[in-house]
Amino acid sequence: MKYYLISGEASGDLHASNLMHALKSADHDAEFRFFGGDLMEAEGGTLVMHYKKLAYMAFIPVLMHLPTILKNMKMCKRDVEDWHPDVLILIDYPGFNLSIAKYIKANTSIPIYYYISPKIWAWKEYRIKNIKRDIDQLFSILPFEVPFFNKHQYQVRYVGNPTVDEIASFKTTYHDDDFVEANSLSSQPIIALLSGSRKQEIKDNLPIMLNAASSFPGYQLVLAGAPGISPDYYQQYIQGVPVKIVFGKTYELLSHARAALVTSGTATLETALFKVPQVVCYHTPMGKMYSFLKKHFLLVKYVSLVNLIVDREIVSELVADKMKLTYVQNELGKILSDTPERDQMLKGYDEMIKILGPAGASQNTAQQMVFLLQDRLK
């Protein structure tokens, strides 16, 4: 069968490539055409456009590149129509993908599947109308999304979480005991710093993280450099601070860390899956205003996936006006040594891991997609 996939960023490229790999096992005649990246291209098929030409974030960059975005959307719609796949598979990236879905649903008979749901449970809940109208099947990677969509009379399929797969795969192949020596680290226990993947996140969070972690003697600081961020950018923040920086080795770092300061996002889930106690740190400009908006307008109680999955506070969240040096120092101090707080957090991680279920998200999704498509062709 013919599969057209659309991914608009690096994380989507990773998840889509794993799904493509699984689809080839479930359907030996699988053909691919896609908007995506290098990882998807390595799985075979035709790369129509690289996600780097699509990935504009925030209001001003989107506004500045609006003619290009609209041109890319028009080209994508036409390309999907012309190739006429057996299914269109959308991976996250809702701003672009929901627009494509609306057009394809209205103008073709191509079934539309969504893998990795738009996070409408956090904001933009109104998008449920578009999803119910345009998406034939939604494959969820977060268990709490199931009751959320059920509340809106829309049934979704929880298939497991691909981050569980990626870490399980890493653990089966990682036997490198030379991480410390290869990165010129000492024998002191490590405090890992995961300060975000975007420059604004790094700018807002890293200075406080560094100051807080530096106040604990007997530990060494190791910073996970984000892909796409140059080492030079970090220098303005780490100059004169005893911290090592490693790129492309976040999982290795977490394998050796005693504790971590983590900017909210998938990194909080990754840290928990490695069973590293953490403090979630997310400073924002105008912190009091953000806290007010979070309290009155956001639809979720938490910002970290760990707490959202378990539906209670497993890890401390220092967000907006709570992201202050003394607070970070206090919360970090609670989890560095063998304390009741550290033990409770580790037990909470076990609870989260049980809720997520075993590895196999890509395989589960591919098998269900192929079954549904074959059933549709009968």
Descriptive overview:
The chain is of the alpha/beta class and 378 residues long. It has two domains: 177 residues, Glycogen Phosphorylase B (Rossmann fold); 189 residues, Rossmann fold (3-Layer(aba) Sandwich). It is 51% helix and 17% strand. It has 18 helices and 13 strands. The strands form two sheets. Strands 3-2-1-4-5-6-7 form a seven-stranded parallel beta sheet, sandwiched between helices. It has a six-stranded parallel beta sheet with strand order 10-9-8-11-12-13, with helices on both faces. α6 links the parallel β5 and β6. α4 packs across α5, α5 packs parallel to α6 and α10 packs parallel to α11. The longest helix is centred in the N-terminal third of the chain and has 18 residues. The protein is globular and about 65 Å long. The two termini are 14 Å apart. About 4% of the residues have low confidence.
- Report the C-alpha radius of gyration, rounded: 21 Å
Give me the oligomer status. Answer: single chain
Helical run tally: 18
How would you classify the helix and strand content by structural class?
Answer: alpha/beta
Distance between the termini: 14 Å
Mean pLDDT value: 90
Would you give the CATH topology of the largest domain? Rossmann fold
Could you say which overall geometry the principal axes of the C-alpha atoms support?
Answer: globular
CATH class of the largest domain: Alpha Beta
CATH architecture of the largest domain: 3-Layer(aba) Sandwich
Q: Strand portion, in percent? A: 15-25%
